[in-house]
Amino acid sequence: MESIPDHIKENLRVLFIGFNPSIRSGETGHHYANPTNRFWTILQLSGLTERKYSSEEDYKLLDLGYGLTNIVAKPTKNAAELTKAEYEAGRKALIQKISRYKPKIACFVGKGVYEQFSRQKNIPWGKQQRSVVPGTIDFVAPSSSGLVRMKIVEIAAIYRELKELLSQLEK
């Protein structure tokens, strides 16, 4: 199965970084395409987007200054199928992407993604004290997977903190 294309360009406001594409995303070629994934709803509820986008419109986020990528490009049923070597290769590639494209904020969609990237444990939600790539703020938000037990309103509240941080940076 093919990996899905990144939607990325220089100087993004936010680069959203997931674990890896779902099987459904791999089949459709679009980010967050699994019907149980709440990413598009969370963006709208948090105020990061004015309306609910569909996965087929994932490329349109670039017009808002938002990009999409994953730490590992290979589609799987779940992140548990990924190997340590795949994460390490993905970590190195992600550091290169962030260094090259210089987003204001790298938003990690799930603590596990950030643990793999930062090599840290016990990570709080929100803005991190130190960034892995200087010049880009690391922000950790809950995964949008339907498997996550947090209520969607709680998840959206953390993404609202991302929106507020972005507003502060753009003043």
TrEMBL record:
InterPro entries per the UniProt record, alphabetical: MUG/TDG, Uracil-DNA_glycosylase-like, Uracil-DNA_glycosylase-like_sf
Protein keywords: DNA damage, DNA repair, Glycosidase, Hydrolase
Q: Does the keyword Hydrolase apply?
A: yes
Q: What is its EC number?
A: 3.2.2.-
Fetch the CDD domains from UniProt: UDG-F2_TDG_MUG
Concerning Pfam families, the annotation shows:
UDG
What's the superkingdom here? Bacteria
**Broad class of enzyme this protein falls into:** hydrolase
GO function terms (MF aspect): hydrolase activity, acting on glycosyl bonds
Domain Uracil-DNA glycosylase-like positions? 5-151
Q: Tell me what this protein is called.
A: TDG/mug DNA glycosylase family protein
Q: Which organism is it from?
A: Siminovitchia thermophila
Tell me the lineage of the source organism. Answer: Bacteria, Bacillati, Bacillota, Bacilli, Bacillales
